[in-house]
Design goal:
The protein has about 325 residues and is α+β, with helices and mostly antiparallel strands. Helices cover about 30% and strands about 25% of the residues. The protein binds 2,5-anhydro-1,6-di-O-phosphono-D-mannitol (AHM) and magnesium ion (MG).
Length: about 325
């Protein structure tokens, strides 16, 4: 474990050695990290900071917003709007995109985020997080528009999340593997704790909300039935299950020790392709997982290859240990 490499130093070295991070992207990532630090403080205060509970408002997806959803969203906007590195932002908590106010210079990047993922876990003191994705604004066109954001996930230039759990840890990729940085509260900085994160290709652990079982499609049901049959079943081994209901926490576990995570399409709302959002949940998580040697599909195609048509588009998600994701995807393709 490297003890003394700060996020800043890590980014400077990537900039110097790999040429992967232009100066403005480094600035952007540092600003996002600083915003996450301040969200982490708000999360930690909990009831003492008056941040728990609902806000009596709904977001564009018709979900009741929690106070922390709104606080985290504002922290990210305020941190990012003035630095000159961004052309615009998009968030789970905002109906439309936000272009950088005219009084500030506009940059070449687009930042998309789910400010507070796992909202149902805020009030019960279970891990939650911030997910973010960075794209480049396409050339041409002075004003940034929603269309500029609608790029497939493979075009991301950086992606990551910050988990607010027993530790606050920022997990990042700029296209050269995945690195993890834990917040050192005494120093006030993120310190590198793991580089070259690798997801084992095989696993005996799955994550899915089992209460939806009766609504699943046949390939998902088949896969889970086979896991549940254990040692005596076709897989010949026992499986364990975890479901935290915070995608950040489930993905963090998978990056740490492997596993497969699924939030598939189901029959509850058949017109929706899934529950999770493509642009600021599935794409950044999908890229992180791939960068760690795992795989991410919607059951039929690679998440990162999906051409988005809407900012808040939903998608079916299967990600994690490569061999398991390929198996479930195969069940869909051969159904
Ligand atoms: P959110 O962004 O509103 O918090 O919703 C996304 C979350 C994911 O973190 C998690 O995997 C999923 O919703 C849990 O959903 P469910 O309560 O249906 O199991
Ligand atoms: Mg979310």
């Amino acid at each position: 474990m490297s003890h003394h490499i700060s996020l800043t130093r890590y980014l400077v070295e990537r900039q110097r050695e790999d040429g992967l991070i232009p100066g403005n992207l480094r600035l952007l990532l540092e600003v996002v990290a600083r915003a996450c630090k301040s969200i982490s403080h708000a999360v930690n205060k909990g009831a003492l900071g008056g941040v728990l509970g609902t806000a009596d408002t709904e977001n564009v997806q018709g979900e009741v917003q929690k106070k922390l959803d709104i606080i985290a969203n504002e922290v990210l906007i305020e941190a990012n709007e003035w630095g000159g590195h961004l052309a615009g932002m998009a968030s789970e908590e905002m109906d439309t995109i936000l272009s950088v106010p005219n009084r500030y210079p506009a940059g070449e990047y687009l930042l998309l985020f789910d400010p507070l993922d796992g909202s149902s876990n805020i009030d019960v003191n279970v891990s939650i997080g911030t997910i973010f994705s960075v794209l480049k604004k396409p050339e041409g066109g002075a004003e940034v528009g929603e269309q500029d954001f609608l790029q497939p996930g493979r075009q991301q230039v950086a992606a990551g999340y910050c988990i607010y759990g027993p530790q606050t840890t920022l997990v990042l990729t700029v296209g050269k593997g995945v690195a993890m940085f834990t917040l050192d509260r005494e120093q006030g900085s993120f310190v590198l704790v793991q580089e070259h994160v690798q997801i084992p290709p095989d696993t005996q652990e799955f994550a899915i909300n089992m209460s939806n079982m009766r609504h699943w499609d046949a390939p998902v049901k088949r896969y889970i039935d086979e896991c549940l049959a254990g040692k005596e079943g076709p897989r010949g081994k026992n499986f364990n299950m975890r479901w935290i209901a915070s995608m950040v926490a489930d993905v963090h576990r998978i990056l740490t020790r492997g596993g497969v995570f699924m939030y598939p399409w189901d029959k509850r709302e058949p017109h929706k392709p899934g529950k999770l959002r493509l642009m600021y949940e599935a794409n950044p998580m999908g890229w992180l997982v791939e960068q760690a040697g795992g795989a991410a599909t919607n059951g039929r195609e690679r998440i990162l290859d999906i051409a988005p048509t809407e900012l808040h588009q939903r998608v079916s998600v299967i990600l994690g240990s490569k061999n398991e994701v390929e198996r479930v995807t195969g069940y869909h393709l051969n159904a």
